[in-house]
Design a protein that fits this description.
The chain is mostly helical. The protein contains two helices and no strands. Pfam families: spore_CmpA. This is Cortex morphogenetic protein CmpA. It comes from Paenibacillus faecis.
Length: 45
């Protein structure tokens, strides 16, 4: 997880900002799945 995203998530949890937590969670899953799809082993699955 990028450091900037980790900082944003921690800040959102600290403020108890549910909307921001949901948005950042969606961003993380989008980033993680996109990165996973572009990996060298993607063709093997």
């Amino acid at each position: 997880m990028p450091k900037w995203l980790s900082n944003q998530i921690m800040r959102a949890f600290h403020k108890r900002d549910r909307r921001q937590i949901r948005l950042l969670n969606d961003c993380w899953f989008f980033y993680y799945n996109r990165r996973d799809d572009s990996g060298p082993n993607h063709d093997l699955q």
